[in-house]
Amino acid sequence: MQSVKVTAKLLADEHRREDEGIDRILWAPADDEVRLIEVTTSVTDRGEVLPFRFTPDPPDVPYPSVVILLGPGDWKRIEARELALPETFGGDLEQICSR
User: Fold this and answer.
1) Which of 46, 58, 68, 90, CA to CA, is 20 to 30 A from 38?
2) How far apart (Å, rounded) are the C-alpha atoms in residues 51 and 31?
3) For residue 69, what is the enclosing H or E element?
4) Per DSSP, what are the bridge partners of residue 57?
């Protein structure tokens, strides 16, 4: 079975192809789940973080996934620590996709 990181990159590439407004996609490493943060102009800034959960879809996506869509302003609030990500997204984030 492919690794979580390989699966994260596969999903990130697919999402970027579908959403031209994506500026960057970050991955929050985990052993058993794909966790992505997508910063996109396709959503408005809402001042809140809403994770969307998905079940595995083998064979291409053998892990459950969580995607957070953020507008650019909400991402800036996260960087400024005015808005927080869920605790499960804690630790180092790795940018795996950008325009």
Assistant:
1) 58
2) 18
3) strand 65-70
4) 61
CA-based nearest residue to 83, from 94, 93, 70: 70
Which candidate, 4, 10, 19, places its Cα nearest to that of 99? Answer: 19
Q: pLDDT tens per residue, the chain (99 residues)?
A: 799 999 999 999 999 999 999 999 999 999 999 999 999 999 999 999 999 999 999 998 999 999 999 999 999 999 999 999 999 887 889 999 877
Distance CA(86)–CA(36), nearest Å, equals: 12
> In this structure, what token pair is assigned to residue 23?
């500026």
- Going along the chain from its start, the domains and CATH numbers come out as 4-98 (3.30.460.10)
d(CA 2, CA 12): 15
Quote the DSSP letter at residue 19. -
CA separation for the pair 70, 61 (Å, rounded):
23
